[in-house]
Design brief:
Layout lengths: L9 H9 L3 E11 L2 E8 L2 E8 L3 E4 L11 H9 L39 H11 L3
InterPro entries: ET-Flavoprotein_bsu_CS, ETF_a/b_N, ETF_b, Rossmann-like_a/b/a_fold
GO cellular component, one term: mitochondrial matrix
Protein name: Electron transfer flavoprotein subunit beta
């Protein structure tokens, strides 16, 4: 899931920066020799694109069928040991962290709701609070 508020910008911007072909909203992907065939849903039906590789693809929700974890498998996973691998073993250079956590704090507690008698009193309270 993209961090661009699901506005479909990340894949397209990346393709433009790399000057690579793009296939957005892919619902089916097939690799070929030096190319990829992308099927995507458009307003008039299905559209098939053949893109040379490398290419940037963005996925549609119909691309894969998610596998949902069952309760017995969740319980088994809780009992499995967690293997910790140092970054140096993976060839990742160790250096000073680029981010520094300055402070962590809880958000302020939410104020309770309030019932109003009419729409007019609601609008008055909203105006008084500067919401409208």
């Amino acid at each position: 899931q993209a961090i661009d508020d699901d506005c479909n910008q990340t894949g397209q911007l990346l393709a433009a920066m790399l000057d690579w072909p793009q296939g957005t909203f892919a619902s089916r992907v097939q690799l070929e020799a030096g190319a990829v065939r992308v099927e995507r849903e458009v307003d008039g039906g299905l559209e098939t694109l053949r893109l040379r590789l490398p290419a940037v693809l963005t996925a549609d929700l119909r691309l894969n069928e998610p596998r949902y974890a069952t309760l017995p498998n969740i319980m088994k996973a809780k009992k499995k040991p967690l293997e910790v691998i140092p970054a140096a073993e993976l060839g990742v250079p160790a250096g000073a962290p680029r981010l520094k956590v300055l402070e962590v704090q809880e958000p302020p507690p939410r104020a309770g709701g309030e019932k109003v008698d009419s729409v007019e009193s609601l609008l008055g309270k909203l105006r008084h609070a500067g919401r409208i």
